Automatic annotation (TrEMBL):
List of catalytic residues: 455, 853
Cofactor(s) for this UniProt protein: Mg(2+)
Protein name stated in the entry: Pyruvate, phosphate dikinase
EC number(s) on file: 2.7.9.1
One Pfam family from the record: PEP-utilizers
Cross-referenced InterPro entries: ATP_grasp_subdomain_1, PEP-util_enz_mobile_dom, PEP_util_AS, PEP_util_C, Phosphohistidine_dom_sf, PPDK_AMP/ATP-bd, Pyruvate_phosphate_dikinase, Pyrv/PenolPyrv_kinase-like_dom
Domain PEP-utilising enzyme mobile, first and last residues per copy: 422-503
Residue ranges constituting the PEP-utilising enzyme C-terminal domain according to the UniProt record: 537-888
Matches recorded under NCBIfam families: PRK05878.1, pyru_phos_dikin
Reactions it catalyzes: pyruvate + phosphate + ATP = phosphoenolpyruvate + AMP + diphosphate + H(+)
Organism, scientific name: Streptomyces triticagri
EC class of the enzyme, as a word: transferase
Amino acid sequence: QKYVYDFTEGNRDLKDLLGGKGANLAEMTNLGLPVPPGFTITTEACKEYLAGGEEPAALRDEVSAHLDALEAAMGKKLGQADDPLLVSVRSGAKFSMPGMMDTVLNIGLSDKSVQGLAKQSGDDRFAWDSYRRLIQMFGKTVLGVDGELFEDALEKAKTAKKVTVDTDLDAADLKKLVTRFKKIVKTEAGRDFPQDPREQMDLAVRAVFDSWNTDRAKLYRRQERIPGDLGTAVNVCSMVFGNLGPDSGTGVAFTRDPASGHQGVYGDYLQNAQGEDVVAGIRNTVPLAELESIDKNSYDQLMQIMETLETHYKDLCDIEFTIERGQLWMLQTRVGKRTAGAAFRIATQLVDQGLIGEAEALQRVNGAQLAQLMFPRFDDEGANDGKGPELLGRGIAASPGAAVGKAVFDSYTAVKWSRSGEKVILIRRETNPDDLDGMIAAEGILTSRGGKTSHAAVVARGMGKTCVCGAEDLEVDTKRRRMTVGGRVVEEGDVVSIDGSTGKVYLGEVPVVPSPVVEYFEGRMHAGADEADELVGAVHRIMAYADRVRRLRVRANADNAEDALRARRFGAQGIGLCRTEHMFLGERREMVEKLILADTDEERETALSQLLPLQKTDFVELFEAMDGLPVTVRLLDPPLHEFLPDITELSVRVALAESRKDSNENDLRLLQAVHRLHEQNPMLGLRGVRLGLVIPGLFTMQVRAIAEAAAERKAAKGDPRAEIMIPLVGTVQELEIVRDEAEQVIAEVEASTGVKLKLALGTMIELPRAALTAGQIAEAAEFFSFGTNDLTQTVWGFSRDDVEASFFTAYLEKGIFGVSPFETIDKDGVGSLVRNAVRDGRATRPDLKLGVCGEHGGDPESVHFFHEVGLDYVSCSPFRIPVARLEAGRAAA
Ligand code: ADP
Ligand code: MG
Ligand code: MG
């Protein structure tokens, strides 16, 4: 068991053992880049420490051996009084994680060695600056002292001297600050700042280990489904100094623009500063390009290194570097984060450069990024120029989109205003289930509290509604119906714009521009700005790669010809779910009421025969729109009471009429029917195939409409490919009865029209019992379509409409799941039923066609799962089709 690796011993594939930072430091070292020497303590050591409560016995000696080697190489000892070797202790897990310990720089400095450092560097100020930084970082992260105490003390020192930046403090000031800092440590931590350099190092290493198990880190892991037992590595890296004067400095850089993907010089540089200063924004950085005039040699070398890294990693990298008196040092690199648009551009650019192939390019993008590119965007060029809309602040981008509306501060007003045609943004400190109506009515939701798993965020995402949450600068005053932001007051009725993709909040109306990517999918791409053309070109190519390799077909959930045509433009290869319930709404409601109220067979048949031609026309249009492609039509699914008037409204109407003594016979019968059909739990009541079995003639009417429509399309030389789908089947007997009836009707239509029809009959698998008996059900079904929405509800025993708004927030916060099982399929539970049903169904009927039509059909992670279990297609809403195509390609590549 080896617990410590020198930077020369590791490589980038050892992230499990060395963490991301350590693996990449090793990779750079072995590429011959200038990395300050050091070593990495493995995640194994961390795991053993966490399990046993103390460091593994061998660790101390191994660290000593590596430290000896490092000291020999550097020609000085850690904390040596006259010329100290200093190191940084840096945490580095496999995945970077908020809530984990930060880095401690300048370890090895003490009251004695600070003098040595001053003498060696010939710079008193530098030495004392480094020492005060050590006490500050060590105090905060290792000893748990409140960091603000140090910052306040630093502020005071600056104020006392009437200066604004820390570089204006001289050696004497910093020396005083060190004394002050040490006092803070003593009172707050109850111990002296340790003077023994090895003790400093060991304590820092241990603190990094311990930080693996902070509450925040644990919560983050649970939510992101990062295993809790990975442990973190610790990097010990010899210090290089960017704070040694104007010929020193520190910076960050990207090998290409993370916003556009364009190659060029992107980054920031700060003269005379140590690492953290750049990110902390303590002083103003200069654009990296200016380094060329500051230090041409280092600049040229950096450019060269950036090219080496890009060619080596075959991707955009971000880097941290420091220049010590004209000598460049690399301190970190990793494959860098990028915007969604840049991800597509970079992937195709790298293909063009010959660095990666098409299959790899597909792995460089994902469906979430594509979805992001498909939202309409704000054109915020004009914002903050003093005339147009004004940027008020920023919150957490919780649910994407661009929403504009009048500010309202309570749900009641949101509903009232939106009923009268106003667009509103609901602004709350935080939302709770009582706000649901207002959230539905609003264009977007803005809160000043709560994170990505807050009620507002979860519910908004579920509704596909724009949401910015946790905008902490906003002071929301519900009582006075206004909010204040840094002195600015926004009253009820003022127009605000919120950007759910960036978290930006504006006062005023920001113009919304449609996504060029959607314009492209719609075939309406205007040759406009080059920016957009370039993006669309990249998306086009990536989609072509995906379509070429994917095995899963992608269908749409669409109920009418218009949606079907749009879906086709977006690349749908059929309709996986046509819901027939909308065909029972609007002016047809009256016929449905008649059907429900029918006392005699005759009345019922009259009602059905009125519905038949209407349904048929719907299907003719749909089959024409999808000519040549499969169309799965689901027979009526929702409970009948959904087609009847609201019970309260109707009761009031009847009561009023009675008091006027002119009660209406029809209303009375309706009310009786409403009472009769009222269910405590309609989701588990009389719906789906159960309706078909108890309402004579209902399903056969629908089947007849489908068959006649198909016959008409055939007669017109079309190519209709209808599939008839029976919902909510739990047992094969239900299916057999409906099937026998349907076959009879189809035979009748064939006889009367003289057209031979090939209509497939199949079922949804959306109840656990159906999944468990899939082998039997497949005897009567030519296809299965997994209805994963209902399957998730019934497997978990969750009523979706209730649970998302009530306790999902708590579940997400406790990390019981990282994402709602209605968003991403629960692979272990629901998924395992799907997997077994696929196996059993195919065992009975090897050519069984298999698909999925729940919302999961358009969810990236779920699409990968459906690919893996061997479904033939996924079906999703038209807008999600490109995402599903892309992810199906990524799953297969
Ligand atoms: P993070 O993961 O937060 O970036 P790092 O370990 O990279 O933490 O360190 C924080 C800052 O300190 C970075 O700017 C880094 O470049 C700098 N730094 C870390 N180690 C050294 C070192 N040995 N010499 C000089 N600067 C360092
Ligand atoms: Mg870093
Ligand atoms: Mg269902």
